[in-house]
Amino acid sequence: MTHQIRPLDDQDEPALLRDQFRQLLRYRALLAGGIVAGLLGGGLLALSGDDTYTATGEVQVRSATADPFSTGASADKGINIGSERQTAVSDTVGDLAAGTLLKKGDDVTARKLLTGLQVTNPPNTLTLRFSYTGASPEQARVRAEALANGYLAHRKARTQESIDNMANGYRAQLEPLEEKRDLLEERTGVGAEDDVSSARANIIVSISELSRKISELKALDTTPGYLNKKPVAPTEPAGAGLPLLLGLGAVVGLALGLLLSWVRLVFDPAVRSPRELVRSLGAPLLGTLPRERAAAGALLAIGRSGSRLAEEYRAVAFRLAYDPSFAERRRLLVTAPRGDNAAAAAAAVNLAAAFAEMGRDVLLVEADLRTPSLARDLGPAAHEVRPPSWAADEKDRSWPAGGRSNVDVPGSGAFALVAGTMADNVPRALTSASVGRIVAEADRPGAVVIVLAPPVLSYADAVALVDRVEGVVIVCDPREVHRSDLERIREIIGASGGSVLGALLHSGRGRLGRTERRTEPGRRRGGRGPGAPALEADAPEITRNPDETMGLRSFTLPGAHR
């Protein structure tokens, strides 16, 4: 069965953003480091910087006018406030202010003086705001006032210069007219001609007009503006204080941490979200195993009351039971991508217990012939039950024809276990006819065969069994498996004739039903030595025969000889 992964559409964009944000929050160390670096930078900036003070004065700009109190007089006539702002920070104003300060004992150059000046214009006003930042409150006040007065003086001088230039121009036009008028007056008399008298009258009118203009220019009010708000010595330093700098540092540090987390996320080969795992593996997510401290000492979680881990295993078993691909064959291979196989072993045992709890005849086969451990982890090995009749006829009594055990799940049922044993030729053992007969036991109605295989990317053992089992469940930690590993697993299993039924996630080594593997003095593989400790109360019990366990149903495997 091939699982079709639905392509992303526009409606998935909010979910993608949420996933990406959650993925960034995984790198808490980078986020915390960025915030700490920002706080340290803000604190160092606040403590190392010298205190500065800013004094502010406001100048209202006005234009020259003949009568400011007349109706219709406008103070903003001909004023370009943008140009005036540029004039206020010009070198000419700086030279005038520096000259004034020099008389008061403050020797400062115009260029240095202008570096601390900032001139702004409040919207919809003819006001220029002079702000000067100095090393002391009094220095800031004096220099701000000197710059404002220097601007007013420069503007007044410029206005007066313009008036003088215009008046001189009018006088230049007036002199030839007066000379011509004097000549015409000498020619006028009793018998003067009419055209001479008319010319003289026109010249007199022109002279009067020019004289009037000169008089108006002299009468103009050349006041350039008013210092409405004189600079006052500030009482507190200017700029951001320590709390503000710490806040800004924290914000900048958080942004830096998010950037570093994003870079780390981009180059992280691990699976970043369940959505990405499903897409890489080409199979659905069966479940996510919760962390449970009580499961750290026992491999089997089914049968333990109030266990969230057991409920998750039951949910996965029900989901598999209703999967058409699994329900048709009832064969399941459980494996991990690579590395430790403890989580896969716990999943195989608990899924077998869950299917037994559902009334199925379950056979769990440990196909790990390199480091077999189920018999040891489930408890002390008892005498095996009698093997099936076909196994008694086999000439080769090696694994798996040798024997099997019954595992009692307290309060839930029992399942059969074919424990793995060390084999010299693992590929031959896995491809033997005995393995084929064991897997074929799933053909009996109501029977389920679960095979635990070594990590699929570490050994080829799982691949050798895929053509017989077909359905595969991958048990992995999303923080340790890579996207390329999942894609390779999908390709390997698909090319071997099997299909991935889904993925089962666990969150960390040693927390999801993994048994602590200890080697006590005198303890042997598959048995108990004289110094072995007693079993825990909730550990599974391996019985010689299922009929010997009171209160639990018994079952007979297909072909078993009683």
TrEMBL record:
Region (Disordered): 385-404, 509-562
Keyword Heme: no
Keyword Mitochondrion: no
Keywords: Membrane, Transmembrane, Transmembrane helix
Ranges of biased composition (kind: Basic and acidic residues): 513-523
Membrane-spanning segments: 27-47
SUPFAM superfamilies, per database record: P-loop containing nucleoside triphosphate hydrolases
InterPro entries with a match to the protein in the record: Bact_polysacc_biosynth/exp (IPR050445), P-loop_NTPase (IPR027417)
Record's protein name: Lipopolysaccharide biosynthesis protein
Organism in which the protein naturally occurs: Streptomyces mutomycini
